Amino acid sequence: MKPLKVMLSNGLKGKENPTLYVERCRRALASWSARSGVLYELLHSYRPDEYEEGIKTKGIDHTRIAMLGKTITQELAECDALVLVDDWYNYDGCTVEFEIAKRYGKPIIFVETEEYSKWLCKKFAEIPMSS
User: What is the pLDDT of residue 66?
Assistant: First the structure.
C-alpha cells in the first residue's frame, strides 16, 4: 500500500516556539498513523527562514499571503489529505486551507497534540457542573 500524501496545517502565529510546535504536530500525526494503521508521506514543509526574510523585505501581510499561496499550490494541490491540528480554526490560513480541501473533496484529518489535549481536559475540568 502506498503512503497517503498529507499536508499538515497548523497555526503558528503567536506561538512561543514555532519550531517546537511543528515538531509536536508531527508527533501527533505519527500517533494518528500508528492508531489508524495508515502510512503517510508528509508534504508540509515549515519554512521559517523564508518567512522571516519575507517579513523583512515585503512586510508581514504580503508574506503571509504569499506563503499561503505557495502552500496551496505546492502542497495542498499535491496532497491526498489535509491534516488540521489543534485550534486550527483560529488561524486565517488554516481556515482557507480547510475551505479549499472541503470544496474540492480532499479528505480532512483532525489531530491534537498531547499538550493541546491536556489543555482541553484542564479547561473542561474548570467548567462548573450543574446539579
Answer: 82
pLDDT for residue 21 is more than 90: no
Domains of the chain, each with CATH number or no CATH: 4-125 (3.40.50)
How far is CA 103 from each of CA 36, 98, 100, 107, 108, rounded to the nearest angstrom?
A: 25, 9, 5, 10, 11
**Within 10 Å of residue 65's Cβ, how many Cβ atoms?**
14
Instruction: Round the average pLDDT of the chain to a whole number and report it.
Output: 82
